[in-house]
Design a protein that fits this description.
Layout lengths: L24 E3 L9 E12 L9 E7 L7 E9 L1 E9 L12 E2 L5 E7 L2 E2 L2 E4 L6 E6 L7 E7 L7 E4 L5 E8 L2 E17 L4 E2 L1 H4 L23 E2 L2 E4 L15 E3 L4 E3 L5 E8 L3 E3 L4 E2 L11 E6 L14 E4 L8 E3 L2 E6 L13 E7 L1
Parallel strand pairs: 2-14, 3-18
Antiparallel strand pairs: 1-4, 3-11, 4-10, 5-9, 5-13, 6-7, 7-8, 7-11, 12-14, 13-14, 15-17, 16-26, 17-25, 18-19, 20-24, 20-27, 21-22, 22-23, 23-26
Length: 362
């Protein structure tokens, strides 16, 4: 008889499960907010995005500042640091290649982002009002001060329509780490029309000769005195309508919870002057006289945007001109020139000057 003895080795694995208990947070109080509020932000406007706007530049910014809202109280089971949390609930379009926190809008070259306290969504920030407590309250409600911006995200922009359904839905949350309460949700309705306007430079302005005239030395009465101003304005033609935007940094609108108030700034033409004959005094807009065997001395050519020194040009910086929003097809960029005495003694002679200019639209 064969007796077999079987040995069984039983391996017991001991699993230790550990967990951190997170505080539960919730709406609290009588007569206060008791659930998530959902807002639909209406958008209805036309923006002009000229080619001169740089990638990454904001073309429209709209603030969110809720008014006439109910008291908010959030209570948690334990004391701790309260947080503001901002996130995207839905993004119908993908993130842009320019910046992962900017989303496409359905119109080529235009993206959208949300921001609060200088940080782009998604973002979590400490609430400095409630740092070691289990109850945080806002007697007059949480205004959810924040903004969204439309941003240029590509070199080429196409005219088109941004529909509200193509824009993100965002959530504003409040509470402690690991247990945030969804306070607000924002989505969009309506349309934003995008135009890409530009102008042509008139033939006369492309190669302009400004006749400064002949003047006697006796016409100058000392340094800073000069001749009459001559018109050197640049004429733009075939302009399509410039509706405006907020690329200059101002907010274009504010949503208060029920309606949107718009304030769109005009588009701008930026005129950059390149003086070929040399600069005499940049701050006072004075260019040198061209070199010539018989050139005049003691004088320069002064530039101004008005027929006086009140509009004198700073040759170190572009000139900024707001563009009309009324659909004008012909636009004049004002510029004037005169001879001005720059030295104590004026010597007669040839007094020519040369410059080039570049116009970009913002």
């Amino acid at each position: 008889m064969i007796i077999r003895t079987w040995f069984f080795m039983i391996v017991v694995s001991l699993f230790v499960f550990c967990s951190n208990t997170l505080a539960a947070c919730y709406f609290y109080g009588v007569g206060t907010m008791s659930g998530t509020q959902k807002f639909t932000v209406p958008v209805s406007l036309t923006l002009s995005v000229p080619p001169g706007i740089q990638n990454g530049q904001t073309i429209y910014q709209q603030n969110i500042n809720l008014q006439n809202i109910r008291e908010l109280m959030i209570k948690c089971d334990t004391s701790g640091q309260f947080l503001f949390d901002y996130d995207y609930l839905a993004t119908p379009k993908p993130a842009s290649t320019l910046n992962s926190k900017i989303y496409e809008t359905g119109v080529p070259g235009i993206g959208i982002k949300f921001s609060a306290s200088g940080q782009d969504f998604p973002s979590t920030q400490n609430n400095t009002d409630c740092s070691n407590t289990n109850l945080c309250k806002y007697r007059y409600g949480w205004n959810a001060i924040s903004s969204f911006s439309l941003v240029k995200i590509a070199d080429n922009i196409a005219a088109g329509v941004i529909t509200g359904s193509n824009l993100p839905t965002v959530s504003y949350n409040f509470g402690q780490e690991g247990n945030l309460v969804n306070i607000y949700q924002f989505s969009f309705t309506g349309n934003i029309h995008i135009s890409v306007p530009t102008c042509d430079i008139s033939l006369a302005s492309q190669h302009m000769t400004v006749q400064m005239g002949k003047h006697y030395k006796g016409n100058f009465a000392g340094v800073g005195t000069g001749t009459d101003w001559k018109d050197a304005s640049i004429i733009l033609i075939n302009c399509t309508q410039f509706y405006g935007n907020s690329s200059a940094g101002d907010s274009g609108a504010t949503f208060n919870g029920t309606s949107t108030t718009y304030s769109i700034a005009p588009n701008r033409a930026e005129l950059t002057l390149k003086v070929l004959s040399g600069i005499e005094d940049a701050a006072n807009g004075i260019m040198k006289i061209d070199e010539h065997p018989q050139k005049a001395t003691g004088v320069g050519i002064q530039l101004s945007t008005t027929r006086s020194t009140s509009g004198k040009v700073d040759l170190n910086n572009p000139l900024i001109y707001p563009l009309p929003q009324d659909g004008s097809s012909t636009i004049a960029i004002p510029l004037y020139a005169r001879y001005v005495q720059t030295k104590n003694k004026v010597q007669g002679g040839v007094a020519n000057g040369r410059l080039e200019y570049t116009i970009t639209y913002q």
